[in-house]
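user: can you give me the structure for this one chain? tokens are fine.
assistant: on it. calling the predictor now.
[tool input]
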Amino acid sequence: MVGGLGLVRRPAAIGRARRHRRPLRRRRGRPTAAATPAARRLTRRRLLTGGAALAAAGAAGTAWWLAASAPEEAATTASRTAPAPAPQDPDGPPRALWEYRADFYTDWELDRRALLVDDTLLVPAGGRELYGIDARRGTLRWTAQGVIPHLTACGPLAVTSTVDSGGRLAAVEAFDGRVRYTDPLGLSFALLLQPVCASDGRTVYLVGHEPAADYRDDPVRRERFLVAYDMRDRRERWRRPLRRSGASAVVGAVADGMLLFL
């Protein structure tokens, strides 16, 4: 099934004309320069704090960028020849900036969703394929193969587990799609959908079972561990045993120096 990915924004209000210290005299037959809308540069901050949201159903997805509604200053540009876009009703629907269509595979319940890392949208597709799409232009930067689509952002990386028996992690470089693997951690991820549950931008926090566990086991009968892994130094920082549980997924977050997880 073919899905689509798009990016939209609300236009910024037309800013005020540049002020001059002395009023300019208007000459007959020569129109004055008009203020043009200031260009809005797409940044990670605008996408994250300006209201980025990704909605997906089945194999179709749509990304929305809603710009801040406050007006911005405009600058006159003598070299601008293209006409300014027509003003848009601030209460109307946003305009599409771009659209990218591919065989995306997303599922909110299984946490297979797109992830924004810096200015790249990482979108899972069928067959453990991952698309890296430029969030500003809507163009394909790269594709990566063999990546489990349960992704957690950690700095410039998207981190996920692997199916290796030794319990390695896979880290995808958001800019170019290169995939790197950690050393075996001596864990099994066979009993959890998303072992990597949180990140503080440098360290990821994950849960795994003892190495002998496989998908046919009852999780309650297997030892479980919480592990902190430093993605920058590529080393395990610490691990601690957890109470046994029949849970098939882990959810966590880092806030104010505390790790919270379920």
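assistant: here you go. The chain is about 0% helix and 35% strand. The helical segments are 44-49.
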